[in-house]
Amino acid sequence: MPRDDIAARLTDLLRDFFRQPALALAEETTAADVPGWDSLAHIDLMVTIEKAFAIRLSTREVRGMKNIGALLDILAQKTA
Amino acid sequence: MEYNCQTPDYATLIAEARALDTSACTRDLRIAVLADFTTHQLVAVMQALAARRGVRLHVYEAAYDSIESEILDAASGLYAFAPDCVALLAATPKLKGRYYAAADPAAFAGQAVARFAGLWDGLRAHCPATIIQSTYVQPAERAFGQYEALVPHSLGAAVREVNRGLAEAARARRGVLLCDADFLAAERGRAAWRDERLWALAKLPCTPDCLPDLAGGVLDAALAAAGAFVKCVVLDLDNTLWGGVIGDDGLAGIALGGFDEGEAFVAFQQFLLSLKRRGILLAVVSKNEEAAARLPFREHPDMVLKEEDIAVFLANWDNKADNIRRVQQVLNIGLDAMVFLDDNPFERQLVRAHVPGVIVPELPEDPVDYLPALAALNLFETASHSDADAARAGQYREEASRQQAQASFTNIDDYLRSLGMTARLERFAPRSLPRIAQLIQRSNQFNLTTRRHSEEACARLMADAGHAPLTITLADTFGDYGLISVIVLALQGDTVEILDYLMSCRVLKRGVEDLAMNAIFAFAAQNGARQVVGRYLPTAKNRMVEGFYAGFGFTCIDSAAHEAVWAHEVASWRPRAHFIHAEAQEWGAAPQAVAG
Questions:
Q1: Is the whole-model pTM more than 0.80?
Q2: Across the interface, which of B14, B197, B200 has its CB nearest the CB of A44?
Q3: Residue B406 resides in a domain
Q4: Which of A42, A44, A58 to probe the B interface (max B CBs under 10 A)?
Q5: In which domain, by residue range, is B189 found?
Q6: CB B204: neighbour CB atoms within 10 A?
Q7: pLDDT band at A69 (very low <50, low <70, confident <90, very high)
Q8: Residue A62 neighbours by CB under 8 Å, 6+ apart
Q9: Is pLDDT at B480 greater than 90 in this prediction?
Q10: pLDDT at residue B409, rounded to an integer
């Protein structure tokens, strides 16, 4: 799946998940930039993303992901 | 109420928990959650599930892995919260850690059980809440392969041993229930339950998809302990208890026994019979000619249920909503304590629409799926079991005989005299505690204050010199009613206060109320009291006793929306007439040995 398509789907998913219809994502966006994205929400979000993209994230990927760009890299690689 | 066979999914429940609407909730429940794993999501799911069942759940969520400190510290937030129940939840990875660190694997299981039993007893010393203990989910790894179970102290054998030990220790105590996590996980498939990654990352006990199962397990036990449980199953007949239509197909034509669908109906009836033996009443509501409806019960060789298993049998052409209300009136139980099982979606919808409160599960199309669909709903949770439960169905049939006898008397006094009633009044006794606690949980209508004491709290009353906790058992020529009334008195200065007064509605207007009030005033006089004071706390279900104290000549001395206080001078009490031969044990004073 092209990276732009993944980014669009991910944006929709996060807007829905955090119930922030105007949420905008950039490559450098981190959890700290999104209200409600705490460590507990992170786990739920990762599980939601796994279901939506039909992939599985490793422990290291869930823990180590620095920003939206890193997440997009993982999704692009796993849905290729 | 509609019950679908599937538990709502995690995402739905989390969304509901975020915008929790408890405005339609009719009751409150206080639960403390102590766990050695992360409980944030579990608690949210539990609150959403509770709200769906009309319960506003107040939760004390202890800090991660603080079970010991909460319980052992008398000044902990746990005790300040004053919970109705305390859930002690434990995850297998933590148990594995202890197992591998244990010096003596042979002693491990015993120690793990003793740790929790000690915690339960520690908790008991500070608070009478019901305890809900989780079991451990079997781990995946087996160092011995299938031989694991044959090695006494292998990990797999140890986990089984701990679960068995927890059940035994709980059985030996009052007010300790299990949330059988291993069963819940096995039903899902343990591989689908576990998520080692989410344990490593966030200390989640299972995959989020399975959290509703675990939350439901805790909630089911908590609600049963609080008195919300099913007392009666109302059954359709054609295509519910057997395949086909008895009126059309005849005795030889219905599918029952043997193989195919007939086999499934036998299995379904066997489960219903085990419910009846447990004390749940079975009733029949069927659109049939009565003779046809009763025919299989009398003559079909593969019929598991017999006529004597059915407490109320209604076969007619009236609509089922009206018939269910009739069943409810005869049995004197709440609509929300009834489950209606019918293969016909039209009848289910009609009952949902016209008899709100009754639990109406969806039944699958194929009768082989009835049993697993019902099992998945876990509708028949209970917090106690006593031998008296099993006798209940018989008592309702005796009641039917009494009602027939009553028809032959024109004078009620003659009738009551003819019953040859005998009653025993006695202080709470250890052997009666399970039944006392159960009656306290069950009685909604004839209940003046509706305070739900746990069995443990009853045991404390029994031993407390400051209280006079009384039970009444009743029998007559038709049979034994068993323990039917619980009254708790307190002597405070010159006043005897009636703290609790409840009675089974099955014995209304037999004179037990008169006998009991005479006993209360006799107790007051013996103890030099000047007056007897009673309270009425209104609930959605106890309107029938709103005028109870007025009926005995009490004067209302304080009246508010939530409470009315009534008083009567001891000096002006005139004993009531009744036709019960009473045998009274000493019940006013606590037994010396127990009171110390």
A1: no
A2: B14
A3: no
A4: A44
A5: 2-225
A6: 25
A7: very high
A8: A42, A43, A46, B197, B201
A9: no
A10: 60
